[in-house]
Every structure is written in structure tokens, then in C-alpha cells.
What does this fold into?
Amino acid sequence: MPSYSIEFIAKHIGAELIGNCEKIVEGLNTIQDATSRDITFLANASYRRFLSTTNAVAIIVDKMDLSDYSGNFLVVDNPYLAYALVSELFNSGSKPKLGIHETAVISAGVKVSKTASIGANVVLGKNVIIGEKSIIGPNSSIGDGSIIGDNCKIFQMYRFTME
It folds into this structure.
């Protein structure tokens, strides 16, 4: 099961982080059942009563729900959407395919480990090195001369707007 720092998750979903950026999240759960390693969200006022009793390491909220909780907040405009993006991070059902996707653009001098995964439409600049078991997600771009170490995950960050 993957784990991520709260800071990484905040960047992934475009959230304002209020709290300890170094705490680790290992899973997702409801606001009532969350443990000290789970992230949860609050988007329905009827669940606000659980803010004071939840054990979650972080809660995804909008600006209106910044109270009654002493833990870490990830403040976003749309908690439902942000939670969906976080759940995508923890989706263990989809493992990236090893190797280089046929639509990736690979420049001269690139070295990619045989255990790495390079996603669709990735652009790797000149002389890039990608380490063991690293994953470069779809639509990402790695600049010339960059060195990505072992066990790294790089994904393009998406921002959604709901009108």
C-alpha cells in the first residue's frame, strides 16, 4: 500500500496546507472511522459534528469548515473532487506497466531503468536518467539533464474547475 506526505497530497490536489506537512498518510477513510494514518474529507454539514472526535491525520475541507479540529487541514474549493484525486493516488488496482509507452518522446542520451515506467505522452529531455522502479506518469515532462532516482513517482498535476 502506498503512503504519501501531507505536503505531497496538498500539492497533488492544489490545496492550502494548514498544519504539519511531514505527517504521512497511508490510507483513506470516513471521518468517523479514520485512524491517525488516514486522510478524510468533509463536504456535508451533517458530518461536521465528527470534526472534534475524528482521529484522521488530515481532513480535506473548504474554507467554511476550518474549526473544531486540531489536526491538519487541506483547504480546497471542492472537497469531493479533491478526495477523488487523493483516492486515485491510493488506487492499488492499477499498476503502471514497465517500460516506455509508445507515445513517449525520448531525447538523445536518455537512460531509463528496465524496472521503470514511462507513461503516455511523457517527454524526457536530453541526457535524462530514470532510476529503478521509478514511475513517470502520463503527460509529464522531465527537463534536460535531470536525474530521477530510484523509487520516485512523478505525475502531472491537474486542476479542475467546476462551473
About this structure: The longest strand covers residues 38-41. The longest helix spans residues 79-89. Helices lie at 6-13, 79-89. The radius of gyration is 18 Å.
